[in-house]
Specification:
The complex is a heterodimer of chains A (304) and B (411).
Chain A: H1 2-32, H2 39-60, H3 65-92, H4 102-122, E1 127-128, E2 136-142, E3 145-150, H5 151-173, H6 175-185, H7 187-192, H8 197-223, E4 225-226, H9 230-245, H10 250-270, H11 276-290
Antiparallel strand pairs in A: 1-4, 2-3
Chain B: H1 3-24, E1 27-32, E2 35-40, H2 42-61, H3 76-79, H4 81-94, H5 103-128, H6 136-154, H7 158-180, H8 185-205, H9 207-210, E3 223-224, E4 227-228, H10 240-244, H11 251-277, H12 279-289, H13 291-296, H14 301-327, H15 337-350, H16 355-371, H17 376-393
Antiparallel strand pairs in B: 1-2, 3-4
Classes of the chains: A mainly alpha (304), B mainly alpha (411).
């Protein structure tokens, strides 16, 4: 029981991270109907920017943790959003209206480019960050097995919930959210009604990148090890989460992320951790066979 | 573009580059006495910003071609494609016997031919049927391991195992393709991407069968109608050299392997070119252009896509079996995503659907690292950048050679 509880806690923290990345996939898919393959790489860049900012702060000598965290958050979100914006501007915007495979291939090119860009600049070795926040609450103890919620896990879940709340309000009640929903329904009509479609799409990419940056920062602190390749698997899992929840649906992305996190935690807790990625991938295929529209998504209607 | 506008654009690009470069270019994480340290290298940022500024100006100064209306298949290369193809085949056949030829050159040409074969195989899937397969290397791996394992456990030779490898890869392709081909193409891309990675993970972890990270050793070499190309034949039989009464030298095997892959690759080309003219091939191309119209015409999209997917996998399986026999040793390391990306880059840069484009792209991309070992680390970076650039500027590839399937006879 206590082991189960511990895995549940770990899974929730992991799932929150996947959920944040999954939102980026689902939002872009909702508006322009493409899978942003480079999104995993954006998350990886977010992790690297946070790592570098942590190290720079250490060099400057800022050791008051709340201040350091705030600076890292701002820096990671700011720089990574810029990367998200640039990726859209260079690789996707010129291709609007091109043939169907073009944005996909260009996105893969971007993903390969960013991976190797970071590898060349920062080296291929695994980077280790010493733990920033340590300790946690001890929930219960049975037979010498301690169930613990670390402060970091609490922070991850807390930040994710806060971001989700803010995000929901943004989509529902701000002019930007309205513009996004309009573009999602009919881009031409939205443009005719005076919505700047290009800017709305750019903003969507920026928001997705910002959320991925937050996820990247949390992962850097949670695991303490990152390398240039983390975006690949995390991107796969977040995409699976987005599909599981129903691609295009925001609550779906969060739900899917949580489920994937839980599945991964329980799988590595009870079965073998070598095959945990295989398990996640198996879920992707099963969902696609049995319920392609996902848990909360609407079935896709293809129009001529 | 006006000078002022260009200057403004370039300054903006430089500003964006500055912000992008500060965290990742400006700082370097270094190993420092057991922990991690950081060093600043702001001069690099300056160089990057300057490069982007000048690059943006250069792009702005490029003459803008007016979009000219050139019908596909009427360019010089397309009209003489048959002559070019025959010339290419003659050169390829004569290559090992040319005066300047060496073992190294033939070996390199063998590698190029493996990639050409993979490129042609993937071209059926991506170029003709328009299905983006990012895990193509998985089928290549299935073919290679199918041969290696059947040689290890059932003592099959290369030629006996070749059809098995191909068939197994095709079966895996059908099994994987069946659930996902009913869905939008984007799903296929990411599922195949995952499948490629999963195949590698399984090969790596299933140590009792696949040998795990150590791979499989001592894979048998192909024989020439039962005659081994070795110094001594096992079991007292004749070797190739003894049978023909010529002195043995180690180069014979390399040349033989070269001809095996040449035959396999040309066979691939022949089959795909012929298939393209069959109803099934036309259905592939029609489906790529408009799925709804196809469905209205009574084409079953799933079956048609599945056939393209399976044929692509079959060809990759053949190539994989050849790879295993040529190396004599395989391990999961040879089947990383990087390989899939390389093959995809060959197809995309060559021009999706163009047979000759694939050949040229494969020659360029495979021989590129031979010109300078320091190019290797930039190779994937350049692939990625080239894929974006091609999509933005020439979505049909460098060699936009797509011949129309049907030609008007009056011209």
């Amino acid at each position: 029981m206590s082991y189960f509880l511990q895995q549940l806690i770990n899974g929730l923290a992991l799932g929150a991270i996947y959920g944040l990345i999954a939102i980026g996939y689902t939002m872009v898919y909702g508006i322009i109907g493409m899978i942003n393959f480079a999104h995993g790489e954006i998350y990886m860049i977010g992790a690297f920017v946070s790592l570098i900012t942590f190290l720079v702060l250490g060099l400057v000598g800022i050791s008051y943790i709340p201040l350091a965290l705030t600076i890292v958050l701002i820096s990671a979100v700011g720089f990574t959003s810029f990367y998200g914006w640039t990726v859209e501007r260079i690789a996707y915007r010129p291709l609007r209206g091109s043939f169907r495979l073009a944005p996909l291939i260009s996105a893969i090119g971007m993903s390969i480019f960013l991976q190797n860009y970071v590898q060349l600049l920062q080296g291929a070795r695994v980077k280790t960050l010493p733990p920033v926040i340590q300790g946690g609450f001890q929930l219960m103890e049975t037979n010498g097995f301690v169930v613990q919620v670390s402060y970091l896990q609490l922070m991850i879940v807390g930040v994710t919930v806060a971001l989700m709340a803010g995000f929901t309000v943004m989509i529902a009640a701000t002019p930007l959210g309205r513009a996004q929903r309009a573009c999602e329904q009919d881009m031409t009509m939205a443009a005719l009604l005076g919505i700047n479609v290009d800017r709305t799409i750019s903003t969507t990419f920026v928001i997705g990148a910002a959320l991925a940056a937050v996820a990247g920062m949390m992962v850097t602190m949670y695991y303490g090890v990152i390398d240039f390749f983390i975006g690949f698997l995390a991107g796969m899992k977040a995409f699976t989460a987005a599909v599981l929840g129903g691609i295009g649906s925001l609550p779906g992305a969060m739900l899917g992320g949580l489920l994937i996190g839980l599945i991964e935690a329980f799988w590595s807790g009870y079965f073998s951790s070598a095959y945990k990625d295989v398990a996640v991938f198996g879920i992707l295929i099963l969902v696609l066979i049995l319920r392609p529209s996902g848990l909360l998504g609407r079935p896709e209607i293809e129009k001529v | 573009m006006k000078v002022a506008a260009l200057a403004k654009e370039s300054a903006f690009a430089a500003f964006v580059a500055l912000i992008l470069a500060i965290p990742l270019v400006g700082f370097d994480t270094v190993e420092a006495n057991g922990g991690i340290g950081i060093e600043s290298r702001m001069s690099w940022v300056g160089i990057a910003v300057l490069a982007v500024f000048l690059g943006r100006i250069a792009i702005g100064l490029l003459p803008r071609r007016a979009p000219s209306l050139v019908l596909p298949g009427t360019g010089f290369l397309s009209r003489h494609i048959r002559v070019l193809g025959i010339c290419g085949i003659v050169v390829a056949v004569a290559l090992p016997f040319l005066p300047g030829s060496s073992r190294y050159l033939v070996d390199l040409a063998t590698t190029v031919l493996i990639y050409i074969m993979l490129g042609w195989g993937l071209n059926v899937v991506v170029g003709l049927a328009g299905l983006l397969n990012l895990g193509y290397v998985a089928f290549y791996a299935v073919g290679a391991y199918a041969f290696a394992l059947s040689a290890q456990y059932f003592h099959l030779g290369f030629w006996q195992a070749l059809p098995i490898s191909g068939a197994l890869a095709a079966c895996v392709g059908i099994l994987l393709g069946f659930p996902i081909l009913r869905l939008r193409g984007d799903y296929l891309a990411i599922v195949t991407l995952g499948f490629g990675e999963i195949t590698r993970i399984i090969l790596l972890n299933w140590g009792t069968v696949t040998g795990g990270p150590n791979g499989i050793n001592d894979i048998p070499r192909p024989t020439f109608f039962g005659l081994p190309l070795a110094a001594n034949a096992p079991g007292g039989g004749q070797t190739f050299a003894q049978f023909f009464g010529i002195p043995y030298n180690a180069g014979q095997r390399i040349i033989f392997l070269y001809f095996v892959i040449l035959v396999l690759a040309l066979g691939t080309n022949y089959v795909t070119v012929r298939l393209r003219r069959l109803p099934i091939g036309r259905a592939w191309e029609a489906l790529r252009e408009d799925e709804i119209a196809c469905r209205a015409l009574g084409i079953n999209p799933t079956n048609v896509k599945l056939s393209a997917f399976a044929i692509g996998a079959l060809l990759a399986g053949f190539a994989g079996a050849f790879f295993a026999t040529r190396q004599g040793f395989i391990s999961p390391e040879s089947f990383s995503f990087q390989e899939s990306a390389t093959v995809l880059a060959i197809v995309v840069l060559g021009g999706t659907g163009s047979q000759l484009g694939v050949v040229i792209a494969a020659i360029v991309l495979v021989t590129l690292p031979e010109f300078g070992r320091e190019l290797v680390q930039f190779r994937m970076l350049l692939f990625g950048a080239a894929m974006i650039a091609i999509m933005v500027w020439r979505p049909r590839g460098i060699m936009a050679l797509r011949t129309p399937s049907v030609r008007l006879s009056s011209s």
